[in-house]
Design goal:
This protein has 360 residues and is of the alpha/beta class. The protein has two domains: 229 residues, Type I PLP-dependent aspartate aminotransferase-like (Major domain) (Aspartate Aminotransferase, domain 2, 3-Layer(aba) Sandwich), CATH 3.40.640.10; 124 residues, Aspartate Aminotransferase, domain 1 (Alpha-Beta Complex). The chain has a seven-stranded mixed β-sheet with strand order 1-7-6-5-4-2-3, sandwiched between helices. Strands 8-9-12-11-10 form a five-stranded mixed β-sheet, with helices on one face. It is globular and about 70 Å long. The model has no long low-confidence stretch (mean pLDDT 97).
């Protein structure tokens, strides 16, 4: 039977019911385990039952084999380290997450905007192509299927940073990508209390290589963090629905605000990303962007608001404002990445509009 998103999120990775046992197995904190045969756990830095439960859950949603990492950057760094060597060409977003660009100092990096005209020349000679769609923080979108075909023809592999979309919003592996990578710190766990990441692939041999690299680098996820992320995953469908409804309402209100320019949300039919986003995304999330005239205007927006807080990261229960220029992103001083929480839509819109009026 084909289950809906809420059912899949709530049941993903759960074991068969056993009388007297909890729905979600508790975290296993052991470092050493009693030794047995080679198929059994022996040391907590190598593997852990709690990791595997969450990997099973995320793998079900992503449509592949999931390998857990202690952060999103740990996941991306391991993909780059396993699949490329110094001297290899890597194509990465010039408008995506800034630490990914910093990471590539010892590689031949080709920085390409998400909205580039993707041609054979763009991917020529690349061992790995990494795209981020919707991009963070600009909310641009690129055609995963088309880029996957170009990359495959050029002999490379395509990885998609799916953090902003989540597995409910977009399925990169089904669209032709070789790898889906994400920071589960964001919407997947959703409660702003976990740092975690993962890589999913349909290739079991590649998944095994990533697990080996994880063990060799000592990238051991915390069992409690894995358990918290699995607990949070159960409400992803509910949270995403409210966050998307809030994003749609906020963007609509922003178009009427004289201080606001360039509101962006891929789910808005007025947005330049919408034609591609609506074709390849299953549903939209709660992250949007816009510009205010200055740094002072952004700070005043937060100061006047009763609901907004200044914070980095996104996808949590609380609506946040992140002025991305402070982190070195190539954006104007007044550029805002706005992450909608799960507040009542009418309350959030009223608070944002009133706060912008006070800034004005």
């Amino acid at each position: 039977m084909k289950w809906g998103d809420g059912t899949r999120c709530g049941r993903a990775g759960l074991p068969e019911p056993v009388a007297g046992q909890p729905f979600l197995p508790p975290p296993v904190f052991a470092a050493p385990f009693h030794l047995g045969d080679d198929t059994q756990d022996f040391y907590g830095a190598a593997d852990n039952p709690t990791w595997r439960v969450l990997e099973s859950a995320i793998g079900e949603l992503d449509g592949g084999h999931c390998v857990l990492f202690p952060s999103g950057m740990g996941a991306i760094a391991t993909v780059i380290r396993v699949l490329t060597a110094p001297g290899d060409t890597v194509v990465v977003p010039s408008d995506g997450y800034y630490l990914t660009r910093e990471l590539l100092a010892d590689r031949v990096a080709r920085f390409v905007p998400t909205t580039a005209a993707w041609t054979t020349d763009v991917v020529a000679g690349a061992r790995l192509v990494l795209v981020e769609t919707p991009s963070n923080p600009g909310m641009d979108v690129c055609d995963i299927t088309a880029i996957a075909e170009l990359t495959r023809a050029a002999g490379g592999l395509l990885a998609v940073d799916n953090t902003t979309a989540t597995p409910l919003g977009q399925l990169p592996l089904a669209l032709g990508a070789d790898i889906s990578v994400a920071s589960d710190t964001k919407a997947l766990s959703g409660h702003s209390d976990v740092v975690l990441g993962h890589v999913s692939t349909r290739d079991p041999a590649l998944a095994a290589r990533l697990r080996t690299a994880r063990r060799q680098a000592g990238l051991a996820p915390g069992p409690f963090e894995a358990w918290l992320a699995h607990r949070g995953l159960g409400t992803l469908d509910l949270r995403l629905a409210r966050q998307a409804a809030n994003a749609a309402a906020i963007v609509d209100a922003l178009y009427d605000q004289p201080l606001v320019t360039k509101p962006r949300w891929p789910g808005d039919p007025r947005d330049p990303a919408y034609p591609v986003a609506s074709r390849q995304m299953r549903r939209f999330g709660g992250v949007l962007s816009f510009e205010l005239p200055s740094r002072d205007a952004v700070e005043a927006l937060v100061e006047h608001s009763a609901l907004l807080v200044a914070a980095t990261s996104f996808g949590g229960l609380h609506s946040t404002v992140d002025r991305r220029a402070r982190w070195g992103d190539p954006v104007p001083e007044g550029f805002v990445r706005f992450s909608c929480g799960v507040e009542d839509t009418a309350d959030l819109v009223r608070d944002v509009v009133d706060s912008l009026d006070r800034v004005q």
